[in-house]
Amino acid sequence: MPVTDPRPLTGEPISLDLLNTRWTYDGVRQDLLASSEGLSIWLASNALDHRFPADAATLEAVLLTREALTSAVDNPSSTTSIDRINDVLGHGRIRATLSAEGPGEETEFEDLAWGAAWTAARNYLDLLRTAPDRIRSCAHEACTLRFFDTSRNGTRRWCSMAACGNRAKASRHYAKTRES
After folding, report:
1. Assessment of whether the complete model's pTM goes beyond 0.90
2. Can you tell me the distance from the alpha carbon of 130 to that of 39, in angstroms, rounded to the nearest whole number?
């Protein structure tokens, strides 16, 4: 029986989904990648479980990439952040191919353990090309989750309106009723 993903926010682009493997629940910091079992869950939730192993080497590469992505999202113009992302990207490449179906691309890795990590770092570049201003942190002060704002007008503030957005509305309502 497959294990369910315990995280409060899933389905974001893989680079942000990797950042969301750390979250806070009832004031306690959670980390999905504290074990290889958690890595298996993360790989499966991103449809990478059939391509990359959930072993210690992959976990180490993914953890290093999570730190590099955290640094890059928090400090996008930092040369240290840029170097850390480039270090991860140095573990793989895209090779142009031609087949009977036409032109294509294949990813190649110096070590398969870096495959999932490289895929996440590469996705971050895609987000930067698409709309870097839409890479956001949840506006709730106690939330550490990140998301890619796909709303039409680009004004999404919460990782989830049902969770963090509702808590903020409830706090405002409570404050108003206390003043009355």
Report:
1. no
2. 28
